[in-house]
Amino acid sequence: MDLGGHPTATTAVPTSPFKTILNFRDVGQTINALDASLLLRRGLVYRGARPDEATLEDQRSLISNYRIKTIIDLRSKTEHVQQGRKHDAKLRDTTNLLPSESAIAPLKIPNVCYHDISLNGSSYEILLLKRLRYASLAKLITLMLLGRRTEAIAILGKEVIQPRGLVGQATDVIDSSATELKQIFQVLADAQYPLFIHCTSGKDRTGLVAFILLMILDVPLPVVSVDYTASQGELVSERLLRTEELRAMGLSDDFADCPPNWANDVHRHIIETYGSCQAYLDRTGISEALRHRIRSNLLQE
Fold it and tell me: Which residues in the chain come in under a pLDDT of 50?
């Protein structure tokens, strides 16, 4: 994408400074590097992948080097349960520790305020279920009752999410998750900074929250787009594992990508559906007063 001579993602977006926290970056630093006319405060909002699989060293660096005080976790309850099981299994088997690890890092970092806000909340889930054929819905419910949750989710993935693609997935969240989005931006208005926003890979749900945040901060759409697509290169190391997870969910490998048209298409949906970005934010409950507090927090005077 042409940014009028400004740096691209390749030159302006630094690689994650962590070995075990992928896709980590300073939002203010990235945006300022992409557009020199913008003046976002650096060192306040970070985005990235889940930190609960990080080494103890990387978790400590989040606190000592980046002074993280607040974490917004956008994952679902199911993902938290799965992550907890993986962590418990790791605690039971310390034979696979890396040479640099002397202990297992905690699932949640001490002395950090956590806000667990599943961006794919109940309204989003209901929206997806309504799009299933009756036979598929009956099968899904049966599988859930039998405890075969992965197979049930694969039905939703194959029949509902896959046909709509990554853009449709994002616009479905935009249309259905007003309650969750308002909670997230309430935190951004009132939280202790610095703050770290993450989901699993720090790409889709985190990318959508970053998209809306940058919209509030009046960042030009081409710059927002480059910030989103920067995650593509940052996640190369986990692509094989991620595509395996996606296939189990009934989704194709391209759901691990960052399509270059994503930001433009999501923005177009907002304009066509709500008339303007401001109208969408008002309807979602992210009021002008709330937006003013966020801008006061994150824009340089």
Answer: 1-2, 100-102
